[in-house]
Structure formats: structure tokens, C-alpha cells
Amino acid sequence: MRRLPVVLIVEDEPAIAELISVNLKHSGFRPVWAMDSLTAQAELDAVLPDVILLDWMLPGESGLMLAKRWRAHPRTKAVPIIMLTARGDEIDRVAGLDAGADDYIAKPFSTKELLARIRAVLRRRAPEQDAGLAKVGDLVLDPATYRVTFEGEHLKLGPTEFKLLHYLMTHAERVHSRSQLLDKVWGDHVFIEERTVDVHVKRLREALGAAGQMVDTVRGAGYRLTVQTAIAKAV
Ligand code: CA
After folding, report:
1. How far is the CA of 80 from the centre of ligand 1 (A)?
2. pLDDT by residue (tens digit) across 82-96?
């Protein structure tokens, strides 16, 4: 099952927070409500949200201060922030964006517009979240969704083959001995025979279909994943 995007709502007015929460839930998000800056910081420390909705006027530290701090911190600096505020004039809009907010929405707002803004910041941030994707030639592996595709076609892999492929793809073009693969993919299981690697490499090749030839046997040394064989054989 796909993880629902988490939206941290930092808002001191329960009625507004409740309204936003209900709408987010209906739209496939997981809202988390923090009523002040301390709670918001605690929530952020526990789970990194996908988006932060940040009210400007909060008891204690203001939303503007929080935005500046979170932008400066390595852990939180990439999380999109949408400022919510009752002040709608140009000066404040600039101050909010200067503090590092990605977008700005003035109260009262329509929940439809808010949802559209949330989706927009998520789309803009999406390429950065692709960092976990492994790509070698036309072979793509997404560890977040457990999907493997070759030339856009979905491939079915067993869990060990998936781990093995993930390792080979993130260390492509390098030759790995059987014992190195056992160590990196299977972990510290000294009782597993090296022949096990051969068995799973064979299964992996079968599961990859046309991309199977990218898994190269290097005689006397081990295995590697390469785009070169695919090109060489295609010529
Ligand atoms: Ca407020």
C-alpha cells in the first residue's frame, strides 16, 4: 500500500485546523495537527511531513520565525512550506516568501484552493524525492514503491532478487564477487553458500526478461550490472 502524504498543520485555531484536517483526509492526505510552535517542532522531530501548512500568527514563536528556522536546518530545509495568514498584503507576502515559504495563502481561503496549492508544491518537489530511484539505462527501480520497470514495463521480482538488483543498480558497472554480494545483500549470514548467489542471479535474469542481459557474469570474478552488454549485444 502506498504511504499517504503527511501534511503538518501548524495552526492555533482549532476550528480552522479541524476544517483543513477533514478536507485533507477526504483528499488522501494524512493530516497532523500542531497548535503551537513547540508541538510543531516535536512533530517534525518525530516524522518528517511531505508538506507544512504554517499559520503566521501563533502563540510564542511566529510562523515566520519557524519557516526561517526550518529552512536553515538540513533535516527540514527541503520540506515545502505553505504559509497561512489573515494578513494578505504585499509586504507580508514578500516576508513569507523571503523566510523560505514555497507558497502563501490568505485567510479566508477555499479548501479547494488550499488543496490545489498543496498538490502544486508536491509536484514541484517531486523530482527531489526521486533521489531514491535507481536508474541504469532503461531499467528503473523505485525502493519506495517496490517497483521495477524496464522500458516502462512493470517487472515482477521476488524480495531477494529485488534487494540484489537494488544493490547492483546502485553500484552499477562494478564487478562484485559472490562473497561481496552475500555480505551486502544477504547480510552477515556466513552459513549461506556462495552458490546461493548464482541461483538468485539466475532468477533475477529470468525476472528481468530482456533486461536480463544487463546482469553480466565476469568469469572468475563475479557479477556486475552494466548497460554496456545491452548495447554491445544490440549492435
Ligand atoms: Ca493564528
Report:
1. 19
2. 999 876 666 677 777
